[in-house]
Amino acid sequence: MGKEHALVICNHKSDIDWLVGWVLAQRSGCLGSSFAVMKKSMKVLPVIGWAMWFSEHLFLERSWATDESTLKSGLQRLKDFPQPFWLALFVEGTRFTHAKLLAAQEYASSVGLPVPRNVLIPRTKGFVAAVSHMRSFVPVIYDITVAIPKTSPQPTMLRLFKGQSSVVHVHLKRHLMKDLPDTDSAVAQWCKDAFVAKDKLLDKHIADNSFDEQLQDTGRPVKSLVVVCSLAILLILGALKVIQRFSLLSTWTGVTISAVALGVITVLMQILIQFSQSERSTPPKVGPTTPRNGVES
Length: 297
Fold this sequence. Notes:
Residues 6-128 form the Phospholipid/glycerol acyltransferase domain. The chain is α/β, with parallel strands linked by helices and 297 residues long. It is 45% helix and 9% strand. It folds into 2 domains: 6-218, Glycerol-3-phosphate (1)-acyltransferase (3-Layer(aba) Sandwich), CATH 3.40.1130; 222-274. It has helices at 17-28, 46-55, 68-76, 98-111, 125-134, 157-161, 184-208, 222-246, 252-276; strands at 6-10, 34-36, 86-89, 140-147, 169-176. Strands 2-3-1-4-5 form a 5-stranded mixed beta sheet, with helices on both faces. The longest helix has 25 residues, at 184-208.
């Protein structure tokens, strides 16, 4: 991990699964070259925009499913990327909730698909396109399964800002890209089969509260700690210099400006928290669109 290009697929279990991916990438030493296919609307959020700059994320439009050239150009830009990178793709298309699971179960029953219990039905068009354009230079797929132990509270953005921890179990399986089938329809079926296996794996976790696999200690890189501490010190010193230079706390005008700025930041953070909640995510259409090249969306 961290020494090879990889396409990363993961179930979307919690509000902050993206953070689990960040931690794995950071522990593997390749956070700076980690990319994610995300909704275009995510770019308008200030914190996400900052994260995009800080972690060098690549944002592709959600509408690339009907714009093949946009997707192809975005993926081909990675062909000559000088460092090992990860490209993350949540193929379920939305975050897991009980209501969405019921809709997925109803759809699966109506068309004769395996009825899911712990995951949603994957939307395979993006995965098929990624494999098609990247199999020549990306050697592996990391199949990640995220589970929350029964004894741990559900991780959320609000708990994160409050400094409250949660335990997350992560199971990672490495597939060789060369072992995937050649046709688009077969690749789509491979993805669906992977999520059927993921569903069974989560059944086992629910029963045993563990994946019962060999644990690997990834450690905590000192470099990341130094970077975060240095950034925090610079921000604090910069804030103090601004306060001193403009005497923001010595006059009523300065106090008012500071209070307004703090209020704006608070509102933006509330927007981010609300936006990150699973219940507010946009559910995908459960029915397939018109097949194209033998692949359902």
